[in-house]
């Protein structure tokens, strides 16, 4: 089966479509947004993702990927349909399934007229139980066929990270396949064997509800690791000489824990962690289960932003009337995505506290402007951003920001001071300006602290 269809060409769907095309599958993409359809058909990616656009151009020019709005054409022309539509949060934090419902209905209708076996695979993140209780029901109702007979159904979560979406799709850590029945599982496994050939990832084959739970519990666990680091960072800030980075290095050397996702900072943002942690919490609440660790992780994440504001306030003695430059607006480096960006929330809080804000980001200025409008000044360069300001806040750790030196701050700023919210800088390099960082013990710029640092023995011995 060399033809597949993919419904929804957002981050997940588009990277998957382009990757599958590069592996020799003919892909039909279904996209409701006309602007996106046109852009993708012309080989122009509507999102920035490293490596995506050249591969998209190739897929389009070779005719391996074509885009349509017709479900009939997609279902008729393929043996497997992957659902990759959005599942945003509602106001109350619960999951909005309307796009999953709509696409399942349309796929079901198209299946009514199709002969032969067809497999439907849900890749969108959905609450446990949805594949069987919602998708299966709709498919059967609309198609007049039975799942487990003429139709197959799987839930197959993705774990791709923005900024590494192509690499994560082409070379994932593992595959999780939640199959309704044996034939569905075998059909999807066969597809992935062709996709990955001799580099088939470790695979867990289970039922849909376990696979749905794996996706939620996985993201909640990673979010919890970050909140754990942020919790420890608070104690570090109270203890002279303590540094959360060193503490996490030590903890991370334990193979049972690992260093990844222990980066203290402004907390987690993005399009997944905020919505998936709350979605998981709400879902469990309805079952009468209190996910205390997830709840505490969300609380810590929220507090972390306010805490950064307090650090800024303490560092420069009040925020009202001050000019503050914020470096980085994307929710993390390597993307132009500002969804759930902590940096944007930080900017809003600074404005609420009466500060004037100048912002810079290497890629996300366009998307940030749509949210922040005329409330801030947009700087074309780092120098322009920090020039004349009273405080520089590093909010997203783009590698190019590492080049900033204490001398640049002294030369350009009205009052040289920097708050490192993503632990990008070596505090030693900033000893001559006011410097504070998340998770770094006491006022580094005071002479008492300087003396303490000089006495301090080496924290990490390179062997
Ligand atoms: C995440 C998951 O990693 C991925 O598996 C899932 O499919 C989608 O959600 P993504 O949202 O792209 O991916 O970003 P990720 O790199 O995981 O970072 C999420 C947020 O956590 C960012 O705001 C980042 O700045 C923050 N983060 C990450 C930390 O604050 N500290 C860390 O140590 C790691």
Describe it for me?
The chain is of the alpha/beta class. It has two domains: 204 residues, NAD(P)-binding Rossmann-like Domain (Rossmann fold), CATH 3.40.50.720; 223 residues, NAD(P)-binding Rossmann-like Domain (Rossmann fold, 3-Layer(aba) Sandwich), CATH 3.40.50.720. It is 44% helix and 14% strand. The protein contains 17 helices and 14 strands. The strands form two sheets. Strands 3-2-1-4-5-6-7-8 form an eight-stranded mixed beta sheet, sandwiched between helices. It has a six-stranded parallel beta sheet with strand order 11-10-9-12-13-14. β1, α1 and β2 form a beta-alpha-beta unit. The longest helix is centred in the middle third of the chain and has 31 residues. The protein is elongated, with a radius of gyration of 25 Å. It starts with a strand and ends in an 8-residue tail after the last helix. The C terminus is likely disordered. The structure holds uridine-5'-diphosphate-xylopyranose. Uridine-5'-diphosphate-xylopyranose (UDX) binds next to α9.
């Amino acid at each position: 089966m060399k033809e597949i269809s993919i419904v929804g060409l957002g981050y997940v769907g588009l990277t998957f479509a382009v990757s599958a095309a590069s592996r020799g599958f003919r892909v039909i993409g279904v996209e409701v947004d006309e602007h996106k359809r046109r852009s993708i058909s012309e080989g122009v990616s509507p999102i920035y993702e490293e490596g995506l656009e050249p591969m998209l151009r190739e897929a389009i020019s070779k005719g391996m990927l074509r885009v349509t709005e017709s479900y009939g054409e997609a279902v008729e022309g393929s043996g497997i349909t992957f659902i990759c539509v959005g599942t945003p949060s509602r106001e109350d934090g619960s999951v909005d399934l309307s796009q999953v419902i709509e696409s399942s209905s349309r796929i079901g209708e198209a299946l009514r007229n199709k002969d032969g076996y067809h497999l439907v695979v849900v890749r969108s993140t959905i609450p446990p139980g949805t594949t069987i209780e919602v998708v299966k029901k709709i498919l059967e109702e609309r198609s007049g066929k039975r799942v487990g007979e003429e139709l197959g159904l799987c839930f197959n979560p993705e774990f791709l990270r923005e900024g590494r979406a192509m690499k994560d799709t082409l070379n994932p850590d593992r595959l999780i396949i939640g199959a309704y029945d044996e034939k569905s599982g075998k059909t999807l496994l066969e597809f992935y064997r062709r996709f990955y050939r001799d580099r088939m990832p470790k695979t867990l084959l289970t039922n849909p509800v376990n696979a749905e739970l794996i996706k939620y519990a996985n993201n909640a666990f990673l979010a919890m690791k970050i909140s754990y680091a942020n919790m420890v960072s608070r104690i570090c800030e109270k203890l002279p000489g303590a540094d959360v980075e060193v503490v996490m290095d030590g903890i991370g050397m334990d193979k049972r824990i690992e260093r990844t996702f222990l980066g203290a900072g402004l907390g987690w943002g993005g399009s997944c962690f905020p919505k998936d942690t709350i979605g998981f919490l709400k879902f469990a609440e309805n079952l009468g289960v209190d996910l205390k660790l997830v709840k505490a992780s969300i609380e810590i994440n929220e507090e972390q932003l306010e805490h950064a504001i307090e650090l800024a306030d303490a560092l420069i003695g009040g925020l009202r009337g001050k000019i503050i430059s914020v470096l980085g607006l994307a929710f993390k480096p390597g993307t132009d995505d500002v969804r759930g960006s902590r940096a944007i929330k930080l900017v809003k809080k600074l404005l609420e506290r009466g500060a004037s804000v100048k912002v810079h980001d290497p890629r996300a200025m366009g998307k940030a402007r749509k949210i922040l409008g005329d409330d801030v000044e947009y700087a074309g360069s780092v120098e322009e951003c920090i020039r004349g300001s009273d405080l520089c806040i590093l909010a997203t750790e783009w590698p190019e920001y590492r080049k900033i030196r204490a001398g640049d701050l002294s030369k350009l700023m009205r009052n040289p001071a920097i708050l490192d919210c993503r632990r990008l800088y070596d505090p030693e390099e900033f000893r001559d300006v006011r410097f504070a960082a998340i998770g770094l013990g006491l006022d580094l710029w005071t002479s008492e602290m300087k003396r303490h640092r000089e006495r301090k023995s080496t924290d990490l011995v390179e062997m």
